[in-house]
């Protein structure tokens, strides 16, 4: 495809016209008077005028030549005289002029010559009389006359020139010619040679301007903001009394001052009027005075300071009604601060459009040439959709051979293109010094990291990170994507180049080092200088880093040190005093020395490093806030931290060799997080803690830790206490001083023998997990002076003052009478007592009126359940093999389920001492709700009216029986294959299956279920209430004498020795 066949709107140059002005008039009224004088005046000013002659007027229809003349004229002057509407020729001309104006937004100048505009607008007087004649003449062709009327109304609504009888024509002609000249001489701009993806933005801005007086365009430098503004200007400027495009306002205001820009604004909008502005305040007054009644279009391009907007386009009352302002800027905050009502952010091109734009500039074709495909894609990836880069690189490589392309690519990887670099760098140059430092830190070290992590580093380094990052976002220099801070590749390259240019030949003289080779060379040869502020390298694998005797000695400005996976050798690792952030994860550090002057250090992260002890100097880090020694497998002990008084975070998780934590750790006033998860050899911990700021406390997996420390004062901030799988034997009575504790995790504390009664005083506790506390034996008695207790499962909808869920699975509870005493847990909604050896469930459980679910799985000695809460919905007694009596029943039937009206699911799987469902539901005993039941059984009950030995059953039901059916029951039998059971042993895993019911081929119900592993044949029974049937009964079924009902079951997943044996349906 050649360049000439570019598909899209051509914005490269303004449209070329054959004529400046087209004159539309009624010859007999004005040809030799007004039109003659007007044509002469226009031609004297060099205006190319089209005036038709009588030879073109043949019949009522205008000739193709005349249509072309209208289309190829920039301005149409329509002289509406008394007899204008009497000519069908003139009316057809007017229709064509209105059409071109609507489509191409051409200018129309109406002249009301001896007629009132209202007569034209409403077709009254002589104009109206002419239309009455047309209606009589074209009676059968009403559409033609209606089209003429619409055109006449449209032109009558335009603001124009009125010449009354006996008024001076020459005065009006002079004014009209001056106005036309202003419109004809208005500037137009070259927009783009190849306007890929431009039309979308132009259309969006154009449509938005219809409802907004001010529109802002923002985005990264080189993304096309000015290009869009130019295209919109060219499109709509002719609709305004005056227009002005102030280019590159930010730079020009610095070169010439705002007064010069105010003068330019007035000169352009007033069409050549020269006004001298002596100061900015005078300029503001003059702009408001001269333009407040004019409809103008003003483009303020590339603004970089709020003052520029305030002094050039101030408030909404500066310009006349219908005026439009377009502002382009790289700083989105300027638009917010100036109260711009609508902002459009222009983003980089998608890959397809980017490739197209690049190819047009590189090959003058829409696709890459053969042999250049891969190189083109590499350059597209380099440019990352930035139009400026695509145009510059495409033009640079046009006509060059493949070797030159490859050479250019290699160079771009090391040094950015100068033209692209300089344009992007203007955004950087506009930043304050601390904002520049933040940008360079992100570009060189932190791009792609989480926002919180970056904010932590920047804050530790003394930067105002919140406002700093926000400014970078507003100026399109960074963005936040999925919680991480990102930036365009070319902006990162620009940042790298800025640092490289600090010292092109000596890396040790640069502020930031991220090249592994550079860093290793400098450290081994002690070539660092006080210019170095940050070192961040991530070694691909464990690698030796040889330290010279004074590796860091000269780096007095070093504030950030991050090295992953370094194996230090040579001299001891002596850290410089100016460090704010140290991160050496996975490093081998034979000797770590902390300088006594490290007074500014805020964070130390040595996660996974293999040192044994901390040097003496560590105790003097008074401003240290965070320590992360997680997974430091050789660390033996934590020394005296009493002087590290500002410490907030101490992470020691996974330190398997750690045996002792110094007593001082229990008295750190600002400590918020203390994490010793999986310190499997920890046996010595502070005996007393006074940690008033602590929020999270983790001792889970500390299997050798036997005692929990005494809480010596109220700790109001602690919310989570994690002790899972620890060796804790008991909790102290001082636990009550954790006054705002919300969660205690005690799962797997196999040595825990008792809980203190004082825990009932933890009124904010929301979650208590203590499954598999096999030595617990009993729950503490409720003391009389405690009015209420709170052990709720954490859920935002639950009130914190009442227990909602309690999980005591496998806690060796032999007696739960005390636990379920009438005065306790009255608001309980969920209770799990599974795997405990109690024999019976006390009748007091019936008083838990709000209990929704009860889990009693694998309570092997449970024999009787005498009462259940009346509102219970879910009950599981799976695996209770000793259970003989359920409520008042020794056998269970569907009819009996009506005694528990809210029950939705009951699981009796692997309960073999109960008798199951000798009879079916009766018509009198129907339930209002549905229920699922699992229980042992070897066959579908005989009372089922329809049974099948397969997974599908289909049968006919008379219509009247289906209509009057009160309920239905479904059954599925899952059996064990004996040969496979002997071969495989017991079953393992769940049975996952789907069911569906169709009536006359239409599915009316379906669902998916899971049944726990079973040790014998089991049944799933579903009782469906009448409301389920009623909800699906439709009139169309009455057209048939019977209903075809089909029930089918499909097993998705099951143990290898489990099979579906049969199914059944029963209608009641």
β-strand number: 49
* Parts with pLDDT < 50 across at least 5 consecutive residues: 1-5, 783-801, 980-987
* Oligomeric state of the chains in view: single chain
Q: Helix amount, in percent?
A: 25-40%
Describe the structure.
The protein has 1068 residues and is an alpha/beta fold. Among the domains are: 19-184, Toll/interleukin-1 receptor homology (TIR) domain (Rossmann fold, 3-Layer(aba) Sandwich); 198-345, Rossmann fold (3-Layer(aba) Sandwich); 351-414; 421-501, Orthogonal Bundle (Arc Repressor Mutant, subunit A); 625-741; 912-1067, no CATH class. Helix content is 27%, strand content 21%. It contains 28 helices and 49 strands. It has a 12-stranded parallel beta sheet with strand order 13-14-15-17-19-20-22-24-26-28-29-30. Strands 31-32-34-36-39-41-47-44-49-42 form a 10-stranded mixed beta sheet. It has a 5-stranded parallel beta sheet with strand order 2-1-3-4-5, with helices on both faces. A hairpin with a 2-residue loop joins β11 and β12 (484-486). α9 (198-209) crosses α10 (225-236). The longest helix is centred in the N-terminal third of the chain and has 17 residues, at 88-104. The radius of gyration is 43 Å and the shape is extended. 40% of the residues are buried. Mean pLDDT is 86; it is low at 1-5, 783-801 and 980-987.
